[in-house]
Fold:
Amino acid sequence: MSKPIEITDSNFEEILNSEKPVMVDFWAEWCGPCKMVGPLVEEMAGEYDGKAVIAKVDVDNNPNVSAKYGIRSIPTMLFFKDGEIVDRQIGAVPKNVLTTKLDAQVV
Structure:
């Protein structure tokens, strides 16, 4: 089963250059709502294997990426297509909200 890709400040740009849509989960170990969303992100990594890139950024360990995208509250999911942000979701939401946003980008 596929796992979300762990993104760091150093490899973030290469992930965005994917030809597939990308969903990035900005999270932290101490964040309660992040722990609720985490298993959903894990499931989606398996379900979208080959169709989209599912990734996670630990905001505590990667402050540059978080600052670049203005992440002020977590969890925040950013949805990218062709390297550009096309959608975002802030806060813990049901899985169907995330899959609907990602499905809109998957061709």
